[in-house]
Amino acid sequence: MNPPPGPAARTGGRRPAGMLAVLLAGQFMVNLDTAVVNVAGPAIRDGLHPSEGALELVVSGYTLAYAVLLITGARLGDARGHRRMFLLGLAAFTLASLACGLAPATGALVAARLAQGAAGALMVPQVLAGIQIHFTGTARARAQGLLAVALAGGAVAGQVFGGVLVSADLGGLGWRPIFLVNVPAGIALLAAGARLLPPDTETGTETGTGTGAARRLDPGGVALLTAWALLATVPLLFGREAGWPPWAWLSLAASVPALWLFVRRQRRAASRGRTPLVDLGLLARPVVAWTLGSLAAATGTYFAMLFVLALHVQEGLGRSALFSGLVLVSWVAAFGVAGPVLPRLPARVSAWAPVAGYMLLAFAYFTIGLAHADGAALVALLGCGGFGLGLGFAPQLGRLTADVPARSAADLSGLINTNSQLAGVAGLAAFGTLYLGLPGGSRHAFTVVMTAFGCVALVACAAAFLGGRAAARTAARAAGGQGSSPASRAAVTASKRV
Length: 498
What we know:
By secondary structure, this protein is an all-alpha fold. The protein has helices at residues 7-10, 16-48, 52-80, 82-102, 106-123, 125-134, 137-168, 177-180, 182-196, 200-207, 219-238, 246-271, 286-316, 321-326, 329-341, 347-350, 353-371, 375-403, 409-437, 441-480, 486-497. It has 21 helices and no strands. Helix 2 (16-48) packs antiparallel against helix 6 and helix 13 packs parallel to helix 19 (409-437). The radius of gyration is 22 Å and the shape is globular.
């Protein structure tokens, strides 16, 4: 029997390091633009004089379009080719960034931000799918660790980078360079991607998705999924600012039957031998269900923490906007250390990494809130929190991709990214409302919210433990069906590493 193809063979002779660099750079750009406008909000208000609602759309419209279209973007990658959709999304993202930077009025800026989010939703699902398809074993674990760095690093870099560019006021352009800088970066990345990304024909062959059935997109499923995502996310994004009016609650209520109709359509498509937009069978896997739940809980606290911490540092501690961004560098640096460290740990240790990581995350949240940390203490505790989140996040990505076959890479990528975005929106809405609505001042509100973050991190810890138990049982059953040879035992050990 011939040995399985190595990373070079699986990328059509191209260097896998170059392919990974292109994919991660695209992910970094999208995450950076999720956060960069938060810092530029006052400058945009001074320049274009938008209404409060329009300014909210400039900030949140990007997230809205991105979250709504992620699963559709994943399926398009599966149907039309991951390379093609990544490059198409990157080109659209670059053009939309140019339109943002040149926007003459608020309406044009809002439209361009929506286009940016839609382009990001087309590009990002191809990143995790590409890693799952073209990397295996330790190489995949390292790639997923670097993906975790791109995810967190982009979000924090957006705040820091936005503050630096707006403060510099390059050429008297105010806020516009935060978008225009994407244009040369996007062009360079397009050139690199065209050279380094593997052809789609090989992707379709390797994943088993090259059939005509897989290439048909379900328009009805797209419409129902989009309707559900809009009904669920619009009130979460804008309900708090509007004081939770009746339409917000009606929209949330209507999202339930919309989701039921979508699930019904997907099950009917699967029963008739057609390719559903989302393979709901993945959610029936205990490993997938528990791990997605754990990631949602941890991710929800992270996105909400970015918002709450920025307000507390500036309003409660009297620090500058630049400091509120720079203080998070320790979080990202520690988060980045966790991914590369994990593959080097013994199997018995790394198997417990998500549980230990989320316990460390809970400790950081509790201590920051109760001790009212500032200065060096705050920086150190944020580093502990980032390391804990990294210990949980990277191996759980590995756990998911190990449990799901490569032919379902698009489904898994769409589920993970959508799960993360919806958790972030829900966490920001819930904890942001709690922080802004509590009486007693910023100090008291910050203590309460950080304590709540700690409790949710413990929930993530429990779900990670249950996901690990489910993964161990699955690996044991697989080994039991193959006998008790050393190779089988090694497979069980390898499965526990993620």
